[in-house]
Amino acid sequence: MYELMFSDLDETLLTSDHHVPPINRQAIALARKKGLKFIPATGRGYEMTREILHELELDQSDEDYIIAFNGGMIVTTGTFQEILFQGMEYALVKELFDFGKHLDVCMEIFTPEGCFLFHANQDEIDRKIKQKANFKVIEDFDMSFTKDMRIAKIIFQKCDMPYLREVARQMEPLTRDRVAVSYSSMRYLEFNAPGVNKGQALAWLARYLGIPLEKTIAIGDNENDMEMIKTAGLGIAVQNALPDVKEAADVVTTKDFSQGAVSEAIERFVLHD
């Protein structure tokens, strides 16, 4: 039987209003009763998941975990005890930030305590409010106040993926071998410390818990889920996943995120195992 299941949140587990649908909640509850550990793995900061963890009843003890910031941090779900932090050097973040200042993007710097938005647009502000994020809009391009903070990641936001991919191409001389680059939610170009991704965090946590990778499942939809789908013993792409993600997966669900794709995976590979 599989012992760990790692699940992306947005466009995988959650509905478009950022809640866990009843069909997924019920399947997860049954799987946990059977002994499965269900581990959210998200690009969000952990403080942005409180309501989700409550809906999943994962906020009641520190025997459960969440992977945040695309693998940049692992904490317990009860009291958010830090298990692992893999942050970025301020000088490197400053280089990325200085490049982004001249682009038509919203830049977001994430720390364990919250995030800071530069050149924010109303759509992104509204999204952060819906996600119940702890965020602050900065009116200028001075990030020096973050120098003594622990920075988990920096992202560029724009609802134009061809634009973001071109930006990433232009930044290759700056990012190559220095930064882990990924995309998510059809609106984010994300930068983490080198080597940091959800797959690396999955492997680290499985090793920490003494569970072989063969007994792990990962499910997701976007490019920042690719490494964990490849790393897990069973990699699953939801029906709405990007073509490359589906290609990397062992299985593709028949349902998309809005129909309860996670419940389909649990019923097929955990409850009926």
From TrEMBL:
Coiled coil: none annotated. NCBIfam families: Cof-subfamily, HAD-SF-IIB. Gene3D superfamilies: 3.30.1240.10, HAD superfamily/HAD-like. It comes from the Bacteria. GO terms for molecular function: magnesium ion binding; phosphatase activity. GO terms for cellular component: cytosol. The lineage of its organism: Bacteria, Bacillati, Bacillota, Clostridia, Eubacteriales. Pfam families: Hydrolase_3 (PF08282). This is HAD family phosphatase. SUPFAM superfamilies: HAD-like.
